[in-house]
């Protein structure tokens, strides 16, 4: 019989939290590590390319040449966004701000402006809070589609950034990251990137320890240019698809009576093949998940769920038979009969996640906020 040791069950997940120290979830399980092949992105077993260039001069030529080509191809997008910026909000089209580059050399990063001047106070020592009122009218859509990052092609052309690397950090945030992120200095061994692998597959709510471990591994691994080119192209397609969806949502918001309310116009995500489950006093309840925000759930069922506070499971069927399952604390407030003969029930509940891992899974699989779809 194998020795029993405390081992983290999250280590066996396939992505991307392999090996994270969630101490609150340690259990007594058999030590089978010698017999299990390393899996998951954080194990390094599935890492196809890192950020470290094999030849600095060649790397710079390749990145600057590609940036010049993409600037020509995306010129119509620049023109459309710039025009909409001028029509919808007074002030400059672009934002320029200091960032740390390779070896902590400070440079000015370019973005399409998405925030009003009052946002500088909000972001002085933190990332932008949720549901703030400091975004321009076009800001939420540019940020949701990631089109606000497009002007960084100019930074690549200037040799300050590359296509594939860790995302640049504001100097004001250095103290926060240095105190919270293990091996923080590793990211400055390479140039920051327009597309970061962790940025593409992880969400804003991913714990900094996970991002740091993944970025550190990438900073120690050489670039595979063929794989990198394919990945950057795929991310570009994902951004274009998301941009199209955002445009459709923007048109709907304009026609909606709540469209002028910044807190409401972001709407709900509608994840496919998703349901909610609850068990109370031995009775099981199942409903189809119709919409989810970061605080509210909308679902329908043939039997009304018990109102009040209960544990609730969010479940989504993914590709290849995989299941995303997250437990949350829910407070069911509204049950409304719907359908023919009022045979069904539309229900609304507020909820909070029970762990950092749960927050990540909700962001990635239910809110689908990562760049690369899950």
Briefly, what is this?
The chain is an alpha+beta fold and 374 residues long.
Task: Describe the fold and architecture.
It is a single chain. Helix 6 links the parallel strand 5 (162-164) and strand 6 (193-195). Residues 1-40 and 257-266 have low confidence and may be disordered. The protein has ten helices and twelve strands. The longest helix is centred in the middle third of the chain and has 31 residues, at 225-255. A six-stranded antiparallel β-barrel has the order 7-8-9-12-11-10. The chain is an alpha+beta fold.
What order do the strands of the largest sheet run in, or round the barrel if closed?
7-8-9-12-11-10
Question: What average pLDDT do the residues reach?
Answer: 77
How many DSSP E strands? 12
Structural class: alpha+beta
Instruction: Measure the end-to-end span.
Output: 38 Å
Helix content: 25-40%
Strand content: 15-25%
The general outline is globular
Low-confidence runs: 1-40, 257-266
What is the CA-atom radius of gyration, in angstroms?
Answer: 23 Å
Topology, element by element:
Blueprint: E1 4-7, E2 27-30, H1 56-73, H2 75-88, E3 94-100, E4 106-112, H3 119-122, H4 139-145, H5 153-157, E5 162-164, H6 174-180, E6 193-195, H7 197-201, H8 208-219, H9 225-255, E7 274-280, E8 283-292, E9 296-301, E10 308-317, E11 323-338, E12 344-353, H10 356-366
Parallel strand pairs: 5-6
Antiparallel strand pairs: 1-2, 3-4, 7-8, 7-10, 8-9, 9-12, 10-11, 11-12
